């Protein structure tokens, strides 16, 4: 096993939102270690704190308790060191910029030189198989292509950590399969550490090296499953007994989580 | 295969064109008819007074003819206004004090200056409101208060104050125009600058963008559809403000002054011609802003 340095270390993270209806315990005592090059999926019913946890890692939320360490820094220091590429469910591309222009945006903000930007844009466009689409505007692309462009945008500035919150949630099954395959390929090429939120058991099992099962009220981790599947994963792997057994284990984990309700 | 008759495109286009124009033309025709009837009715008194003074009787035909050809009718007939307008626009040297082009230009220049000042002020205030908590809580009530003071009361004061400082002409009028036009820009821009959703702002944050970068690259471009909608209101308001600014005694040039001098001398045709010139100017200005809006937003992929 190679490069297994811990990148993200969460120690008893809690996050309570104070709302008009009283406190909401979005996260309670969440502890997790994510290693360099891990592909970690977060799965669980709505409201179990998946988004909140991902946002906490990216310093978009501040935990009310516990310690979170990213590359030996606080999440906010890591954010300022541009450690995160964040992908949301919606592509969030600017309609007034071309695809290349959209990918260029974080690069411009971070002060990359023009020639460097050009090179990086070309590289990530190839990586997400959108070579030749740089000059197109977002509305000229399908939903799946737009989402790939948003992934390219998150990759362009070489963030160590890619955080994806249901990035394919709005896409249909066929496009989704295709993108899952492409994402795995991309992960193998770039060796990024990926945090991936999903509602889909097959998606989590197919993609991950580590599956984190969560459960709501309060949001917490109920099970962490290390995947025994090989790194090389053609789509057909989903029909193998190993895959089915793993999916079953995740389903059981989700059911146990619900048992507390 | 060719038996199935397809309507010729030109035919369809024509039908659609007529279909759209018909209601407009009907309303226009109705207005003109009502106008003529009103002109006959309102001007009849004068004709009858004249006849009574001369001790003669007027028949119905004569009455109608005379009501529509007076020099200083209570209500000029449409064709009189049209002739007055045509003469004012095309019948005079454009440097002449009787030219509507001359007066129109005076009004237009002050309108554009005021519109410019108002737009800049509205945008700056909106930027302040969106970025500064104290401004967010304090500016809006004052802005609303400024608009609830009748402009007819403010305008003469502005003119007098500026005149006492030796400033006359374009600037005082432009200030009044700006007074009216900054408000729609302010309201629209506050809304527009706040349109970027949480996700867009989070992305900016994850890239560690500075507030300045967030403003120029996200908030400002996102606000343009709102800005343009406001600009259309603002430019019409600026024209109204300028004309009101030309009404206080002393102004000798501009469509507002033309309106006023018309009413001093009972030149109703002149008043109406100036009124129509102002209305057309407003329409043209709004259309120009609309065209720029369409071109810009289409180019930016923001057209709806
Ligand atoms: N900004 C917020 N303010 C108040 N409550 C919030 C906020 N964000 C999330 N929550 C609550 O925290 C809980 C976890 O939400 P979330 O992390 O979005 O769940 P998930 O992504 O797993 O569906 C939910 O009950 C949600 O209503
Ligand atoms: Mg969520």
UniProtKB/TrEMBL annotation, chain A:
GO molecular function: ATP binding; ATP hydrolysis activity
Family annotation (Pfam families): ABC_tran
Annotated keywords: ATP-binding, Nucleotide-binding, Transport
Superkingdom of this protein's organism: Bacteria
Domain ABC transporter as annotated: residue spans: 8-237
Xref: Gene3D superfamilies: P-loop containing nucleotide triphosphate hydrolases
CDD domains membership: ABC_NrtD_SsuB_transporters
Entries under InterPro entries matching the protein: AAA+_ATPase, ABC_transporter-like_ATP-bd, ABC_transporter-like_CS, ABC_transporter_ATP-bind, P-loop_NTPase
Keyword ATP-binding: yes
Family: Belongs to the ABC transporter superfamily.
UniProt-listed PANTHER family: ALIPHATIC SULFONATES IMPORT ATP-BINDING PROTEIN SSUB, TAURINE IMPORT ATP-BINDING PROTEIN-RELATED
Name this polypeptide is given: ABC transporter ATP-binding protein
Organism in which the protein naturally occurs: Paracoccus caeni
């Amino acid at each position: 096993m190679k490069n297994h340095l811990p990148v993200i270390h969460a120690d008893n993270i809690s996050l309570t939102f104070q709302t008009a209806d009283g406190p909401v315990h979005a996260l309670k005592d969440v502890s997790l270690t994510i290693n360099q090059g891990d592909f970690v999926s977060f799965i669980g019913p709505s409201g179990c704190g998946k988004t909140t946890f991902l946002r906490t890692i990216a310093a978009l939320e501040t935990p009310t308790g516990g310690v979170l360490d990213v590359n030996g820094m606080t999440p906010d220091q890591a954010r300022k060191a541009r450690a995160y590429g964040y992908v949301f469910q919606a592509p969030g591309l600017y309609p007034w910029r071309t695809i290349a222009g959209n990918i260029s945006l974080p690069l411009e903000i971070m002060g990359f030189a023009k020639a460097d930007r050009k090179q990086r844009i070309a590289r990530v466009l190839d990586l997400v198989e959108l070579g030749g689409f740089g000059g197109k505007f977002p509305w000229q692309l399908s939903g799946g292509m737009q989402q790939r462009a948003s992934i390219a945008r998150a990759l362009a500035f070489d963030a160590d950590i890619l955080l994806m919150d249901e990035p394919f949630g709005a896409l249909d099954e066929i496009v989704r399969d295709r993108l899952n395959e492409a994402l795995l390929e991309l992960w193998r090429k770039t060796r990024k550490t990926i945090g991936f939120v999903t509602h889909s058991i097959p998606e989590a099992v197919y993609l991950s090296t580590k599956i984190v099962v969560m459960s709501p009220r309060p949001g917490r981790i109920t099970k962490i499953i290390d995947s025994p599947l090989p790194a090389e994963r053609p789509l057909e792997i989903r029909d193998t007994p190993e895959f089915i057994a793993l999916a079953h284990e995740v389903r059981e984990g989700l059911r146990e989580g619900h048992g507390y309700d | 295969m060719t038996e199935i008759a397809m309507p010729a495109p030109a035919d369809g286009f024509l039908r659609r064109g007529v279909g759209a124009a018909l209601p407009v033309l009907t309303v226009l025709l109705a207005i003109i008819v009502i106008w003529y009837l009103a002109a006959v009715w309102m001007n009849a008194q004068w004709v009858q007074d004249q006849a009574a003074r001369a001790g003669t009787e007027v028949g119905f035909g004569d009455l109608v003819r005379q009501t529509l050809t007076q020099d200083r009718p209570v209500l000029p007939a449409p064709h009189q206004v049209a002739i007055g307008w045509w003469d004012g626009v095309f019948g005079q040297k454009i440097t002449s004090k009787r030219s509507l082009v001359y007066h129109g230009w005076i009004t237009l220049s002050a309108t554009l200056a005021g519109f410019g000042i108002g737009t800049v002020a509205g945008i700056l205030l909106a930027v302040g409101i969106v970025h500064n908590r104290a401004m967010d809580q304090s500016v809006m009530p004052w802005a609303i208060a400024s608009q609830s003071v009748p402009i007819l009361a403010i305008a003469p004061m502005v003119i007098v104050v500026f005149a006492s400082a030796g400033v006359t002409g374009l600037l005082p009028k432009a200030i009044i125009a700006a007074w009216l036009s900054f408000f729609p820009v302010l309201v629209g821009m506050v809304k527009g600058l706040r349109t970027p959703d949480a996700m867009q702002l989070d992305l900016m944050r994850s890239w560690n963008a500075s507030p300045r970068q967030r403003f120029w690259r996200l908030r400002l471009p996102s606000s343009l559809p709102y800005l343009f909608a406001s600009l259309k209101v603002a430019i019409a308001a600026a024209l109204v403000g300028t004309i009101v600014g030309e009404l206080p005694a002393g102004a000798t040039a501009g469509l507002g002054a033309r309106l006023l001098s018309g009413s001093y001398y009972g030149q109703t045709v002149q008043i109406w011609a100036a009124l129509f010139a102002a209305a057309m100017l407003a329409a043209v200005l709004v259309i120009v802003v609309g065209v720029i809006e369409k071109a810009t937003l289409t180019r930016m992929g923001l057209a709806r």
